[in-house]
Amino acid sequence: MSHKLIKATLAVETVKLIAKKYGVSPEEALDMFYKSSTAVSLDDESTGLYGRSALYIFSLFENEKSFS
Prior knowledge:
Blueprint: H1 3-22, H2 26-34, H3 37-43, H4 54-66
Helix pairs in contact: 1-2, 1-4, 3-4
């Protein structure tokens, strides 16, 4: 499986977690995620986030959101 496919799958699962936690639509959750530094880090191959779970990425998103 390529990193692009893995990252896309992780993004979808993370967006689902965001939508559930914040009670927003999938579209709003997608917007929230892609405006975050966490999404930028997931897209950066050098971070290795593609090797982590969606829950881990969601925790990074939550941490980022708590400091903004």
